Amino acid sequence: MANYLFLRGNRNKGFFIDIAKELRRRGHQCFQMKFELGELLFKSNMHTIYAPFHLSKKEYPITDDTLRQLKIYNITYKKKMLNKRTTTKELKLYKQYMHLIDQYIEDNQIDRICLFNGYHWIDQVTKVIAEKRGLKTYIFEDGIFRPYTLTCDEKGINADSSVPRDITFYDALKLDSIRLKRYLFQPENQELENKTKENLFLVAFVKAINMLGDLLKLSPKLYAHITWWQAIKYFIYKKTFPIRREDTLVCPKEYIFLPFQVARDTQILYNSPAIKSMEQFVEVVLTAVEEINASQKRDIKLIIKEHPEDMSRNRYRKLKWRFKNNGNVIFVQKYNLNKLIAGSMAVVTINSTVGIEAIAQHKHVITLGEASYNIEGVATNCKDPNDLVDVLKEVLESPVNKERIDKFLYYMRFEYQIEGTINARSNITAQNVANRISP
Predict the structure, then answer these.
(1) Parallel, antiparallel, or unpaired for β 136-142 and 255-259?
(2) Nearest residue to 338 (alpha-carbon basis) of 353, 358, 309
(3) What is the pLDDT along the chain (439 residues), one digit of tens a residue?
(4) Alpha helix locations (H) across 199-257?
(5) Is the four-CA dihedral 251, 253, 255, 259 of positive or negative sign?
(6) Alpha-carbon span 342 to 181, nearest angstrom
(7) Distance of CA 201 to the CA centre of its chain
(8) Which pairs from 427-433 meet CB under 8 Å and 24+ separation?
(9) Nearest CA-CA partner of 6 in 435, 439, 433
(10) What is the rounded distance in angstroms from the CA atom of residue 313 to the CA atom of residue 176?
């Protein structure tokens, strides 16, 4: 039997609680360290401590430079988005929590650690401890085939994941075409169909309690990128966006589809060496398309869809104003994603999960960043933006490797991903996760 430690769950605070309940039913021991005030609202049967009340002045032996070199989102966000340096006082706090986590792991003989996303400072410092102690970690995240799958990877998420990149691995797979077609974006367990809706009012209430805890110094500052005003705007947007009408759009005969990503997301900060902003993204692709139009006497357009999770923060007014008289650039906010993909000649993305959805439609997909699906015959990775025009020409003239794509999708959906939901509490999800992580 194993001893599991759960740290900092996702927005659905019951997600880890349900998994722990199932693991305990199977005879394992489960422990939890809570860091946010709002977490205290959720009762569990795990051995639990509220970490801020157990913090001492003792520090884990690690240098400031080593901490700054970790993929800690708070540090990176402040440096690249706010042009601020993380203070030694903040780093000292990280070290104190590292000491607490390390001691808690030792005292309770922890074997396995469960984290969410992996880029939060709590996650990153815990990974350092786990690697030093030789412990197994599981990193969870939203699934690729949403909302009916979730990610659980021992290495990380996105480009850091353990997804094989070797084409021979996929070519050797046996494919069940009927299963793939029927359940790629649908649950095999039909009981999940009514268990995916997120309770936004509960999420907002818990977030408010967490931010109040930070304000009252009852919990550590966990997020550098969220203010009260941003949180309020985000909540209002999430509640009103579903009732908005779709944009009016007449799709051109030939177009390249560009899905925007969250501008401050870890995918851009850590997995996009060449493209650092959506503005640069548009410039790079538009330059390539205009060159193709000129040399081949074509009229290829760009359709750009803004990311729904980013609209409350980024409206891209300057970018839209810049291209308002450019007939080659079309912006949309709300429009059916599958239709945009289906009508496109190709999808150019940095590393978005939209790339997976386009691959599922057997579309040409070009990535400008690091992605788990950068696999020959599945997607084409353009490392140097200056090469995009040549890459785009070649891709548009090449056939799609449907067989390899289908085998890749089959592996991702039925072997790599776990069927279940992140958004809402579900015993089915807990059982499927326990099957994956239980020895």
Answers:
(1) unpaired
(2) 358
(3) 999 999 988 888 899 999 999 999 999 999 999 999 999 999 988 999 999 999 999 999 999 999 999 999 999 999 998 999 999 999 999 999 999 999 999 999 999 999 999 999 999 999 999 999 999 999 999 999 989 999 999 999 999 999 999 999 999 999 999 999 999 999 999 999 877 788 888 888 888 888 888 888 899 988 878 887 888 888 888 888 888 899 999 999 999 999 999 999 999 999 999 999 999 999 999 999 999 999 999 999 999 999 998 888 888 999 999 999 999 999 999 999 999 999 999 999 999 999 999 999 999 999 999 999 999 999 999 999 999 999 999 999 999 999 999 999 999 999 999 999 998 899 999 999 999 999 8
(4) 200-215, 228-240
(5) positive
(6) 16
(7) 22
(8) 427/18, 427/22, 428/189, 428/191, 428/192, 428/195, 429/15, 429/18, 429/19, 429/150, 429/192, 429/195, 430/18, 430/19, 430/21, 430/22, 431/22, 433/19, 433/22, 433/150, 433/152
(9) 433
(10) 42
Cβ neighbours around 191 below 10 Å, total: 10
Peptide bond between residue 147 and the one before it cis (omega within 30 degrees of 0): yes
pTM summary value: 0.94
Residue 347's alpha-carbon distances to 26, 255, 304, 354, in angstroms, are 45, 9, 10, 9
Q: Distance between CA 432 and CA 412 in Å, rounded?
A: 16
Q: Cα separation of 379 and 395, whole Å?
A: 10
Neighbours of 162 (CB within 10 A): 10
Paired residues of 50 in beta bridges: 34
Please name the helix (run of DSSP H) or strand (run of DSSP E) that holds residue 255, with its range, or none: strand 255-259
Amino acid (1-letter code) at residue 59:
E
Find the largest Cα–Cα distance for the chain.
70
Beta bridge mates, 418 = 150
Question: What are the DSSP calls for 158-187, one per residue?
Answer: GGGS-----HHHHHT----HHHHHHHSSS-
Of the candidates 154, 156, 144, 75, the one whose C-alpha atom is nearest the C-alpha of residue 113 is 154
> Hey, what are 157's tokens?
């998420």
Q: Record the tokens describing residue 159, joined without a space.
A: 């480009």
> What is the CB neighbour count within 10 angstroms for residue 145?
22
85 CA to centre of own chain: 25
Q: In the structure encoding, which two tokens stand for residue 44, read together?
A: 């569990």
DSSP alpha helix (H) spans, 216-250:
228-240
